[in-house]
Amino acid sequence: MHINDAVFLEDLCPKFRFRQWRKSIHRFTGKSCIYCGKPSESIDHVLPRSRGGLSTTENCVPACLSCNGDKSDENALYWYRRQKFYDPRRAMAIRAWLEGDLRLAIRLLQWANPNFKVSNKNYKTDEKTYKAA
Ligand SMILES: [Zn+2]
Q1: Which helix (H) or strand (E) is 9 found in, with range?
Q2: Cα–Cα distances in Å, from 20 out to 34, 121, 129?
Q3: Which residues make beta-bridge pairs with 56?
Q4: Alpha-carbon distance 63 to 45, whole Å?
Q5: C-alpha 67 – ligand 1 centre gap (Å)
Q6: Phi then psi for 80, rounded to 5 degrees?
Q7: Measured between alpha carbons, how far is 33 from 43 in angstroms, rounded to an integer?
Q8: In terms of Cα–Cα distance, which of 94, 125, 131, 119 is closest to 109?
Q9: What is the rounded average pLDDT of the residues 99-127?
Q10: Residue 23 alpha carbon to ligand 1 centre in Å
Q11: Digit-coded pLDDT (tens) for 65-106
Q12: Distance 76 CA to ligand 1 centre (A)
């Protein structure tokens, strides 16, 4: 868990902006964990802050508490490769996300998870936000 991260981020930006930013990150993946696809409950720093990772969109991905806590300060891609739910498409998505190519990342996630499709009635699209990013 990265309880300290939240404090750190709140110190940097006004609460409102921070909250909006968090929301937009979760929205990109339809509120699902980028690693395993379960509901995302937290934001994970792909490159841990302890190793110089920044609190930017490129370095912050939606993650469930289980993945976030289990990964801890490890390199996300190395950690992810060892997981039972490892999916090469998700690994590519994580890589694309890190490179700032959210469009590609989202496309790969959709490919990895058919339930994530726009046609799914549980998933609300937010094209405007998506394009703005
Ligand atoms: Zn997860």
Answers
A1: helix 3-12
A2: 19, 24, 11
A3: none
A4: 9
A5: 4
A6: -60, -40
A7: 9
A8: 94
A9: 72
A10: 17
A11: 999 999 988 889 999 999 999 999 999 999 999 999 999 999
A12: 12
